[in-house]
Amino acid sequence: MRRIYLDHTAGKPIDERVLKDMIPYFSQDYGNPSSPHYFGNKARTAIDESRTSIAKLIGAEKKEEIIFTSGGTESNNLAIKGFAYRNHVKGNHIITSSIEHMSVINTCKHLSKQGFQIIYLPVDEFGIVDLQSLEKEMTEKTILVSVMYANGEIGTIEPIQKIGDLVHSKGALFHVDAVAAAGQIPIDVQKEEIDLLSLSSNDLYGPRGVGALYIKTGTRIQPIMQGGGQERGLRSGTENLPGIVGMGKAAKIAKAEMTDEAERLTRLRDTFVKGVIDLIPESFLNGHPTLRLPNTVNVRFNYIEGESLILSLDMDSVVCSSGSACTSKTLEPTHVLLALGLKHEEAHGSLLFTFGKQNTNEDVKYVLDILPNIVKRLRQMSPLIPKELIE
Ligand code: PMP
Asked: Phi and psi dihedrals of 347, rounded to 5?
């Protein structure tokens, strides 16, 4: 029996067309882009094409504004630390949100030990960053605001353009972690007043271990790793040529197919959410009801242990997750759900279903067929369950 994979936030399959384009760069066109000969030229051209595709996906003005990294985590580290270290004379104040990915939160925590003052903005019950708090917290010492485009655990899309406007009107710069959003919804760094933007290839159905950082012309950052000076001196190390080629192809496909695929996924997502809420009592959607990523569904099932539900679904060939891959190994509930105001037990009873290219209507139908009975069975074993929910 086919397994139904609903854990695309944790990892996506590489698109076959991406893989096909990458293969020659492992064993035929393996030159180093820094070399001045035939092989080097070929590698450099391929990397430049990839830069162009990524620039187009996010509406960047020039391909030179894109530099390659090892993934979203490195892009977030380079954007925030690189900017903070380079601009600390202007101010030591950085604002972010309480629902960022750990690669932003932990980078900010690290900076706070080095004399930077960090503010973690609250979000509302749907995960939307509070603009009034942002306005109140901004001071003349604020150099950077970092808010994610969309949250990969609850799907909520942030009011990026409004934040960009506000940040610039106060004289600070704006970093956006777009790892979860890119390729699913349109991004326009120029219109949305974004100065730094992080991307990860696998989230675009590209290979793992490669990512990119958009750095708007004129934005000053310093490298966080010293070496041979590749990527305009900002990211040393021999370029991951096949990976970069793959990420460029993935960005090209995402741009061409995003509108249709987002519509298809939105239909699957909405059918799934309606089915779950209608069929399972005491189940609730976490995150924003409409301002959400096309592929993301986070549901809270009261009176249930999320881990046991994941294992029961796995036995029935359906895979999903409890939240971010970073916290799924610990028993701690994810900080994202707690920031929405959920209690510990409510966060523990929440599951994340993320759809992808290969999911179909049949998948949704199958999960909706089995899920209500599994939830019922697990609830019958729960000491917390109110009598009226036991039949
Ligand atoms: N930011 C967000 C919003 C994420 O969902 C992730 C995880 N894919 C990351 C950053 C980290 O990206 P990577 O795993 O490529 O380092």
From this structure: -65, -40
Q: How far is the CA of 29 from the centre of ligand 1 (A)?
A: 29
In the chain, residues under CATH classification 3.40.640.10 are: 16-254
From the options 3.40.50.2300, 3.40.640.10, 2.60.200.40, 3.40.1500.20, give the CATH code of 16-254: 3.40.640.10
Q: List, in sequence order, every beta strand (DSSP E) within the chain.
A: 4-5, 66-69, 93-97, 117-121, 142-146, 173-177, 196-200, 211-215, 283-286, 296-301, 318-319, 350-354
> Where along the chain do the CATH 3.90.1150.10 domains lie?
4-10+258-389
pLDDT category at 325 given cuts 50, 70, 90 is: low
Residue 158, ligand 1, Cβ within 6 A: no
Q: How many CB atoms lie within 10 A of CB 307?
A: 14
CB 285 within 8 A of CB 298: yes
* Amino acid identity at 162: K
pLDDT of 12 reads 98
Please state the φ and ψ torsions of residue 45, each to the nearest 5 degrees: -60, -45
Q: How far apart are CA 327 and CA 84, in angstroms?
A: 27
Which pair of structure tokens corresponds to residue 108? 């900010």
Cα 1 to averaged position of ligand 1 atoms, centre (Å):
31
Q: Give, for ligand 1, the residue of 179, 201, 354 to mutate: max count of ligand atoms closer than 8 Å to Cβ.
A: 179
CA 140 / ligand 1 centre spacing (Å):
30
The token pair at 249 is 């192809």
| pLDDT exceeds cutoff 80 at 324 | no
Distances (CA, A) of 99 to 43, 77, 185, 339: 39, 16, 19, 7
> Model-level pTM greater than 0.90?
yes
The answer to whether the beta carbons of residues 320 and 6 sit under 8 Å apart is: yes
CATH of 4-10+258-389, one of 3.30.428.10, 1.10.287.1080, 3.40.50.10140, 3.90.1150.10: 3.90.1150.10
Dump the DSSP string for 47-108.
HHHHHHHHHHHHT-S-GGGEEEESSHHHHHHHHHHHHHHHHTTT--EEEEETT--HHHHHHH
- pLDDT confidence of 282, banded at 50, 70, 90? very high
